[in-house]
## 1
Amino acid sequence: DESNFSALYWSSCRGYPDICKVLIHYGCNVNLKYRCGFTSLHTAADRGHVDCVKVLINAKADVNIQNDRGETALHLSCYRGFVDIVRILISANINPFLKNSNNKTALQEAHSQQYNHIADILVRYQ
């Protein structure tokens, strides 16, 4: 569209995993960065779209890719409190030690929002 976001980005943003699958099948780049360095995985994780996150990871989306603020999908899902997405990202071997531009890890993001149940998961993973 005119904002230079792809159909895959919008499908991830809106939570349409079946459309994501079709677009990936036809060659959409799962690691393409958009405004502020967000990928489709960042967007799906930030919006809480579990099934889209699964589709993107299965299509080899880079779970450790960082946006312009140094955030991974794990930072975003921890900040928002999306525990299911945190678990999925952990099972995809995301690096929990990456820091964002505020020098915070995903664990620190979870603590900052008082999501202690997510912090506990991350502590066990590390």
## 2
Amino acid sequence: MALHHARAIARNGELAQLVAVADPIPAASAAIRQVWPRLRVFPSLEELLAAERVDVVHVCTPPHTHATLAGQALEARCHVYVEKPFAESTAEAERVLALAARHGLQVCAGHQCLFEYPAVRAQALLPYLGELVHVESFFAFAPAAGHPTGRAPLAPDRQLLDVLPHPVYLLEHFLRLADPHSPMHVAALEIGPRGTVHTFVRCGRLTGTLVMTLEGRPVQHHLRLVGSRGVVQCDFVLGNVQRLIGPGTSSLDKVLAPFRLARQTAGGAAAALAGRLVRRQRGY
């Protein structure tokens, strides 16, 4: 994950500069040096902060270390970007946020899907859906068979902890856009031993479902917004959005609907692929 962050910073060279990397694992440090031979690499964040002047620290380490490392960076008066999951407990998250507020610093969680085209476009289309009544968040993820540094693959429960935040924060975000005040509670929850989660959520009059699977194929990441006047579906793998606005009850609507969806899917996928090629952005 750190390599993805480093490459993203490098692509934005006019706005940011990659200063240094801290990693206690020699194989990981070597992988970084293969890409950036002149980059300074330190065995710990403490040593990096003592030797370099940095503005923002990206924390891309195992979840149980996030709160401690974010705290070190904030104490050094650095803004912090923390990969998901932000912390392993509410108490840890609150301590990090309180420390940032005390020093007047910014903390950002790695909830990047909120800022990708599908989510941004879906949010812009919300007024056309009428009253939002239901949100569905689905993620089928394929764990990596190995790791570039030789590290063993994550166990299903740890892999689930690593990727589950994506469908969770998308579901919560759009439910909260429609109803920012009602309490949100989990009405039903089932967690399987091989990396599956099924959840039913209520937020006032709204309902939401979340399905996460490490076994289902192909890899898919969808968000579906159902309103009183239409539906929007986001595809975060293809990078596009399909929408059907209107009651859809007439014979003509039923005939045209699949063609409208096909046109939107093909056009959106082509545009998303072209954008990735222009930005030299790799999928992962």
## 3
Amino acid sequence: MTLRKLAVVSLLAGSLLAVPSASTLAGPKSCDTRSNNTVEKLTECVTLDGVRRHQAAFQEIADANGGIRTSGTPGYDASADYVAGQMEAAGYDVTMQPFTFNAFIQLGPSTLEQTAPVATTYAEGVDYDLMAQTDPGDVSGAVTAVDLDLGLGNSSTSGCEASDFAGFTAGHIALVQRGACSFQLKAENAADAGAVGVIIFNQGNADGRFGLINGTLSSDYGGGVPVVFATYDRGVEWSTTSGLEMRLVADVFRGEATTVNVLAETPGGDPDNVVMVGAHLDSVNEGPGIQDNGSGSAAILEVAIQMAEVETHNKVRFAWWGAEESGLVGSDFYVFGLSDEEREKIALYLNFDMIGSPNYVR
């Protein structure tokens, strides 16, 4: 057992378990049947193998569902069902709490390719990335550069004013440079000028502004066209390519979706003094989320299973939150839905996120 894991389990155990009397300390040695009602017992029975078993289950779920467990997708729903099933089997009272949220989900690989003058396919994650909150689309057209300012020390305002698009030909793809205003404003100005798609490339004015970033439009983006972010070098290359035509495909869902929080609590314990333990269950769009946050979700699940036979002094409530990666939506929904009286009964909340990382700051 690692020191990090020992610290996590000890923190949980010290917060969740009542101080036992001498008569409760004796019991069978099997972790499957005994009451793990001390820090030592619980620490002994919460093993790395046990936590890894749940992480492996999350990975299998992701593998069967396009590689992700994002809220609003079948991969998340299967993860929630898995957790609920494990907790019900352990004897907890389980509630699935549904809620709606504004979802952005990448459904499949994107495409950015040059169709003229020479066919070239560009690599997602290397040359470009989809902008978060882009609209879906499969568009093709000539590429028109918009008010670029290239070179070190530039002060690009490309696309920040509607006047930047004076003379822009409707049906073209706009090539816009980062700088001075939001990505959303640039994209919406381009769409208003008739662009069918938008490529925003990095500014290139200083160190750190050449490569890819996790660019995002806001949830109220209203351009209606697909948008990607590209490296500075690719942007310069495209801006100097005569007769450039490109195809851009964004296979995404953007809109209202329904997902759930999974809540499970001990049948006994003081309901007026509730100890809560939580972790977000969803992954980002880019992967299965076995670290972020399969690690926290699996750890509290294994702790819950191993303390299922404990008669706690206080009621203990475990929570697996949905849509955390969309802005803490699930946990906010839960908290704001509580009455003042219900909130006052929660004595403590412990949250576990990315606990498998050797980076303790994270």
## 4
Amino acid sequence: MYFQLLLFLFVAILLMIWVKWVERQSITSLGFFQKRKAFKEIAKSWGFGSLIISLSFALTYLFGGVYFTDMDFSLLIILYVLSLIPFWFIQSGTEELLTRGWLLPLLNRRFNLALAVGVSSGLFGLMHLLNAHVTFYSILCIILSGIVMTLYALKRDNIWGVSGLHVA
């Protein structure tokens, strides 16, 4: 699993090389390197995303949509999950880099904003086709959340916040 997650880092580096040497654009154009307080932006959005996930899980549990058959909260399991968090930042940050940092402005320059939002969010959904237990409904929800996150990225003028939200 760690190797698969590290592949995302390789993709991110390749994209930055592409932008710098082929498109001859500054890497700052990708939306990661704006001079806002990046750590604060990530922390706020990760916290908000974690709250949303926790609330939706709690409500699903309370209404009988999910139940526990066995739970293992051993130290080993907790350490394993904690060890994955940096890799989740790499994975989700790379997806945001591709769809909202690179593709969105590229399409917006060549066509228009509505098409750019639709296509980049559609690609964001397609990137999740290999998720476990994927359905038409789950992909549709991912595309719609992609649209919302795109609007958030446009409002904040960077992709730090959506990257933190995506990690959650």
